[in-house]
Amino acid sequence: MADSVILSSPALFVAALASVGLLLFIRHSRAGGFVLTVLAALAALGVLFAALLSGASWEELIVLLLLDTAVLLIGGKGRER
Amino acid sequence: MSFISLAFLIFLPVTVVVHWLLPFKLRKYWLLAMSIFFYAWGEPFYVVLMIFSAVVDYCCGRVIGAKISPRASKLALLASIFVNLGLLSIFKYTDFLIGTVNALAGTSIPLQHLPLPIGISFYTFQTMSYTIDVYRDPSRSEKNFITYALYVSFFPQLVAGPIERASNLLHQFREEKQANAEDLVAGFRQILFGFFKKVCVADMVGSLVNTAFGNVAEGNGLTFWIAGMLFTVQIFCDFSGYSDIATGCARLLGIRLMKNFDRPLTAVSFREYGRRWHISLNSWFMEYVYIPLGGSRKGKFRKYLNIIIVFALSGLWHGANWTFVAWGLMIGLCTTVEDLLRPGFHRFCDSRHIDLENPVIRRVRNACVLLIVGVTSIFFRAPDIATAGTILGKMFGGLSLMPDSVNKAFSVLGIGVLGIAQIILSLILLSKGQEMVFPPEGTLFARGQDGRTAQGVRLVIYAFLILLVAVMWLMAASGNLQSQFIYFQF
């Protein structure tokens, strides 16, 4: 974990946390429509791309991507339910 | 051709699009040609073997269907069984028999090292089920050879099942259908989830299992408890992933294949596990071996003997090695012991007012089943009985949960915090992703949830899953992970 690029860079770590939190909020909130979900998903992809450019390992990127996908898949309590 | 290949990503859309563009009468020919092309890709010689098996069973079916005489029908049935079991014995079990004779008699007969034609265990069982069904009811005999050949060679299920019954598949090839959005979307979802299971879970977990089984001397008890459990997850995701892709591909072509797995890892008893795991093979053995042997109609002793025979044969079907027979026997013994203990266990629970259907109790029962399945899976994965014995000795003789032991287990497996996070997240996605393929009422993927928001959110989820599979696939392609399906070797 010591050589984790995402954990060792405060900016990336906060951005990753914020993007996952945003996805969770939008999917959980009743206000979460399609456009907001797409915007939050694009933000999450932006963080992944930034991590990739900063030299994050495959494992880190995959864990982050898994986390985003899990939140998208299970975080929904909004309109569709 | 493997589902996990770039060639397949071109093959599938071309096959599906042309299939729906062609007039109905030509579709069977197109599908048959593409199925043979699919099988011949990489294994051109063994197409001849598959066609030979199909021709023999077609002819046997026609002889039985013609009702010439009971004797002729019986001879045709025996010929079909003899040819199919003969092919299987020659290509799969020759070296196993020679090795066993050499070990028992001290002889040194040279091994033949015959290559195993892919899918032979699946299509021989499928064609045998056809002739047995026709023998039981001659009116089921298929007259059109092209339809029959397509039933044998239909590419989604040709290489690793589901082992279809003629009664489910043949009539679907005869019915004229139009492409419909529901089938296309459901097929696509199932393919995507199958790829997720295979590429994102099975291969990732498989690399850890390979590491553990490659370091038997170094691993401790905990290493192999973890490896056994992970192997159970790996083989489930690998095989059910294949079945999902197969079922999804067939659905894109308007064909419904039978369900091959029904969440076996949630089973709370061995009986339930057997009903949910590799349904097409277990029901095959039930229908064509267990019931003809007498099933449960000839007393308790015969019932349990039949169960053990069926599971031992199922083990032998999986591979020509005593480890597979031992695996089958263990599952058979567990099922038998559970059945024997069930009445007493239920009386005990009733007397203490324990509700076996309570969610917490169900979790505990499920954990017990998974732990035992994890132990039996050691025989499935180990290269030989001696290695399996060494591993079991470590599991039961040297299990420790002290920090040193835990550290050593994780270091042998080569897994860190990120790896553990990856496994946990993958398992969460695996259980929730099931809703995508078999959506319960009121959930995001259920029918009727077609509002604009739900549709849009579904698209975003598909996009993320595709991205995830693509990234993991890239990793596999770069040589870090295994990408062949385990059941291809059977």
What's the main sheet of chain A like? Answer: none
Cα shape of chain B: globular
Tell me about the biggest sheet of chain B? none
Rg of chain A (C-alpha, Å): 13 Å
Instruction: Enumerate the spans of chain A where pLDDT stays under 50 for 5 or more consecutive residues.
Output: none
**Strand segment tally of chain B:** 0
State the helix count of chain A.
4
Q: Overall pLDDT of chain B, averaged?
A: 86
**Approximate helicity band of chain A:** over 70%
Structural class of chain B: mainly alpha
What number of domains of chain A?
1
What is the assembly state of the chains in this entry?
A: heterodimer
**In percent, how helical is the residue content of chain B?**
over 70%
Average pLDDT of chain A, rounded to a whole number, is: 78
What would you call the structural class of chain A? mainly alpha
Structural Rg of chain B: 24 Å
The fraction of residues assigned to DSSP E strands of chain A is under 5%
Number of strands of chain A: 0
